[in-house]
Specification:
alpha/beta; Double Stranded RNA Binding Domain; six-stranded mixed β-sheet; about 35% helix
């Protein structure tokens, strides 16, 4: 019993020491009240709305325009989704697809030059012609997951810009 407890404690200490945390569980280190000038090329974009909610959740002070002193600037471009065939079955039909979601973003610290970057996420899924409806649902789920990953990437990069 003691040995099991000591092994469990040792493992949990090792995991916490290396910075491991479950995806989505780590809070972002953007200081509350940090002024952020947020702009989106497509305001109706799911990704832009997700980023705005994450900024609000981090209690960033969203400001308009980039003339606010001390404000970090974030510009989110238009999403681009590419769907590629990965494999085909013996009948020559598509068996797997790869989804690639890309979003150009521009980040800038106060008084610094803006840097454009392209965030991207990839997912693969198996396609079954007999389950067309569920395949559409699976693709929609993957897109939502990819947007969350990209929003988390953006928040981490914004934290670095904020330092």
């Amino acid at each position: 019993m003691k040995r099991t407890l000591s092994v469990a404690l040792t493992l949990s200490l090792a995991l916490s020491a290396c910075g491991f945390h479950l995806r989505g569980s780590g809070g972002h280190a953007l200081a509350a009240g940090t002024p952020v000038a947020f702009e989106a090329a497509q305001e109706e974009s799911e990704f832009a709305r997700l980023v705005q909610r994450k900024l609000e959740g981090a209690e960033a002070a969203l400001v308009s325009g980039d003339k606010t002193p001390g404000a970090r600037r974030v510009h989110v471009g238009a999403e681009s989704l590419e769907r590629r065939e990965l494999t085909v079955n013996t009948l020559g039909r598509v068996a797997e697809y790869e989804l690639i979601l890309s979003v150009p973003v521009t980040l800038a610290a106060p008084g610094a030059e803006a840097k454009e970057q392209v965030l991207s996420a990839r997912r693969e899924y198996t396609y079954d012609r007999n389950r067309v409806i569920s395949m559409g649902e699976q693709e929609a789920f993957l897109l939502t997951d990819m947007r969350r990953d990209l929003a988390d990437q953006l928040m981490r990069r914004l934290e670095r810009v904020a330092r």
